[in-house]
Design goal:
This protein is mostly helical and 267 residues long. It is built from 16 helices and no strands. Keywords: Transcription, Transcription regulation, Transcription termination, Transit peptide.
Length: 267
């Protein structure tokens, strides 16, 4: 707890804020988590900060449930929502024809993105458009969320990680277009997964790049266990050596097991 928070008047300063948050639907359990993670919240003005934040979000999200989800994320951080920047960012997205459902999703689950300065936000939007994302698709706001959440140096390091595997600029851009969250992975995770899939399993880097969602799967929890099964089947000659990475990794668990039973049952 911050020392200055202990000096606040409980009845005149703290209680009104807690009562307001409870009145809009924030549960007591959520409230205790919010305050413990960001005690400076109690030092904010209810009239100049909390109430305006609520009304700004309400004007975009409409649903109280979504407003509360978003507000909880904001209140746990030290981010202060600027009305001018927020509305400018919303206006920019609407001007591109981005559906309200996509905007609501971005605001609800990643409000910090919408709180960026309008200039920085616009630069991020410009890059996402240049990469080739369709504003009418949900992938656009997913890409925007990832791009604006990564420092330029970190972004370049991840691009370089893919280059080390001989992937072209277009292949790397395609990875981001197909699965934006791949660029949210750490450089270490990218390299470890690529090393296993390419060096241990023998798939070509370009083959992995065509199904980048594979890189989002846990190396220890999904990739290695499934590949260990495939290697046994290969050694026994039960499957062909050119099995596609997609059929091994993307298939849901029950279908993967079903195919496995059929393969083993045929011999």
């Amino acid at each position: 707890m911050r020392p200055r928070v202990l000096l606040l008047n409980p009845e005149r300063t703290i209680l009104p804020k807690l009562e307001f948050l409870c009145s809009i639907g924030v549960s007591r359990s959520d409230l205790s988590v919010i305050v413990s993670q960001n005690p400076d919240l109690l030092n904010r003005s209810i009239k100049r900060n909390l109430i305006p934040h609520y009304h700004i979000l309400k004007s975009i999200l409409v649903s109280d449930e979504k407003v509360i989800k978003c507000l909880k994320r904001l209140l746990k951080s030290s981010i202060v929502l600027s009305q001018n920047d927020f509305y400018a960012n919303i206006s920019l997205l609407r001007g591109l024809g981005i559906p309200q459902s996509s905007i609501s999703l971005l605001v609800t689950f990643n409000p910090s993105t919408m709180c960026l300065k309008a200039f920085n936000f616009a630069e991020g939007v410009k890059k996402v458009v240049q990469i080739g994302f369709d504003p009418s698709k949900l992938q656009f706001v997913r890409a925007l969320q990832v791009l604006l959440g990564i420092k330029q140096k970190t972004w370049e390091d991840k691009i370089e990680a893919f280059r080390r595997w001989g992937l072209s600029e277009e292949e790397i851009s395609s990875i981001f277009r197909k699965n934006p969250f791949c660029m949210g992975l750490s450089e270490k995770n990218i390299m470890c997964s690529m090393n296993f899939l390419v060096c241990k399993m023998g798939w070509q880097p370009a083959a992995v790049a065509r199904v980048p969602i594979v890189l989002s799967y846990g190396l220890e929890t999904r990739i290695k266990p499934r590949c260990s099964v495939i290697r046994v089947l290969l050694l026994k000659g039960l499957i062909k050596a050119d099995v596609p990475v997609s059929s091994v990794m993307i298939t849901r668990e029950k279908y993967f097991l079903g195919r496995l039973k059929m393969t083993c049952g045929a011999y």
